[in-house]
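so the lab meeting is tmrw and i was supposed to have these ready like two days ago... anyway. pasting both below. for each one the top line is the aa sequence and the line under it is the structure tokens. i havent really looked at them closely yet so no promises
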Amino acid sequence: MSRWTLGLLGGSGLYALDGLDDVRSETVETPWGVPSAPLTRGKLNGVELVFLPRHGPGHAIPPSDIPYRANIAALKMAGCTDILSISACGSLREDLPPGHFVMVDQYVDRTVGRERSFFGTGCVAHVPLAQPVCARLAELAAEAGEAEGIPVTRGGTYLAMEGPQFSTRAESELYRQWGMDVIGMTNMPEARLAREAELPYAAIAMVTDYDCWRDEGESVDVASVMAVMQSNTISARRLLDRLAHALSSLARTPSPDGIETCLDTAVITPVAARDAALVSRLKCIAGRVV
């Protein structure tokens, strides 16, 4: 039976995983540098997990400086079959209160200045991103959350902002007019890079606040976020335990979305025109096609 190796990207509040068996730490260096932290490997209910806190030990790395390419490459090099992102977010809807989990299925990327591709001059690729998350992994995570009594919404659009400042009220109201559901700072370009690495990616956005669009109550600040984050983190660990239990008895087959073969028709630069140095770097995440 093919087995799952689940890469787990922890966000604000989730900096370590308890309850793992056979725990070991791995230091990885990728062609795009070192990831945010050493990888923590272990087993949860018999399922191999590879944990990486995207903000690094002690939450020392701000959203714009996270080494996104190194993080995704490190999880690929570690043999992960899938990636689950867990991160804090603000809600742009009244019916998504603090403590609610949203299984994101779409993104609007408003970040600037972040490296968003492994490919580039010398080897160009255009991967499909119409459906940016793996529907199967998202559904399994949603089922695990619901089984634990966690309020979960299936589907939602995540507005990725640059940060590190929170939104202005005008921005928050604009994003609501656009039909956005939640807002955060870290899922992009993470989801883009996971697709280029042919890794199925799903994201749990844990609501900590209402951003700043509501007339009632205070605008979002770190103190209000931290007040909710602890209980969200406890819920996330329960969800992970339940998810690992489900995966332990489920054979790992290729994603129905065809994510593991998305590079088959994405690389557009002819072999003879490719830059040898870039191709060499790409081999660890796209060696199947370059």
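ok protien two:
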Amino acid sequence: MMPHRHNWTIFLFSFACLTLGTAGAWAETTYDPQVTIPVGEFQMGTEAGTARERPVHTVWVDAFFIDRYEISNTEYETFQPEHRRSQLSACDECPVTLVTWHEAEAFCRQRGGRLPTEAEWEKAARGPNGFAYGFGKQPDVSKANFGKEFQDGTVPVNTYAPNGYGLHQMSGNVWEWVRDWFGAYPEGNTKNPTGSATGAQKVVRGGSWHHSEYYVNTGMRFKLDPNVPLNSLGFRCVQSEPQP
């Protein structure tokens, strides 16, 4: 019996070392590219922000499928091989950045999808419990890539544990384009809102690695000219049917 006990001790020690070695990163690799967000209501907006995040209101969103991860450099370059990577997000599995809203939407369209509406993005980011952050109730720099120096850059898209829906890095790492033109929230409850019919700036969500906890709150919303690419701005896609 002694050799078996010795081997089991070695196994437990090795497993503990492996676990400690992956602290701060999400060790699981999944090949299911999308997550199902169920039909239902959620509370959109936040009192922690400014007038543009208010009023907090009830929104009904139909079920949809959203990418588990931010679109990576490798994925985007199958669509646009000549794309120039940002030096702040240069690895193969780092999120693609330096893409305009039009380029992001074109990528999603060729895949049979589109950019998420602002309401879809926020419902997905909050998770099934409606949390203020993509990783939980309270800000925690050990659970997401935010609050860093600008020169630190991004991390691979599958880094850190996912939220309750199985989505990675909805708070931090890079900002994400959404479909809507920026505008004031409507008064009262809404169903499947799509934002203003026209506008000059598109909504971006989620904050990035060099932003504070204020910006990575899932209720915060910011705006940008759709023709402007940034080192800290990427995207993910949604579909009404799952990707093959």
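from a quick look at the 2nd one: The first helix runs from residue 2 to 21. The chain has one domain: 30-239. will dig more after coffe
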